[in-house]
Amino acid sequence: MALPQLAPTPTAGPPLPSFQQVYAECAPFVWRTLRRLGVREADLEDVCQEAFVVVHRRLPEFDGSASLRTWLFGISRRLASDYRRRAHIRRETAVSEVPEGTQPPEQVEVVARRQARALLERILDELDEDKRAVFVLFELEQWPMAEVAQAVGCPPQTAYARLYAARERVKEAVARARGGES
Q: What is the average pLDDT score of the chain?
């Protein structure tokens, strides 16, 4: 993912990207991150907007000591954690209409992808917050481990240990899910 071009600022210090640049180039990353950190599809738009309200308010304070992507991940992680702690979060899925009994043949692949995504989300929900963050950034976002460690605030060795533990839990959960489908 390319970082936004930095626009010169009239004040001293490193130049800051404009909010529009950050939003245009980083919104898909924030959206994916929030989704993978446990924000339900129905609430994703609101939480993503909340993230960019924080970005808009705090962008002048961004000092460049970490990458912009790392900073955005920190904001997204805190918001997703707050979201999951809220008591009103329910696990049901609302639908506008009752689904029909059959699906056209071309929908089989779409349904399979949705089911795989739902399984991944359930598995990610089982991971503790630290392991989940490392797994999402390294395996799904494909960040280098040094950047992952910086984003989650731990040494690289600890991040690797969390990744190993998360992979083991994911493997076990997939094995349980496959065993339950047989």
A: 84
User: How far are the Cα atoms of 1, 111, 149 from residue 145, in angstroms, in the given order?
Assistant: 16, 33, 6
pTM, 2 dp: 0.69
Among candidate residues 99, 161, 102, 101, the one with its CA nearest the CA of residue 130 = 161
Q: Which fold has domain 14-87?
A: Rna Polymerase Sigma Factor; Chain: A (1.10.1740)
Band of pLDDT at residue 182, cut at 50, 70 and 90: very low
Instruction: Specify the CATH class of 122-182 in words.
Output: mainly alpha
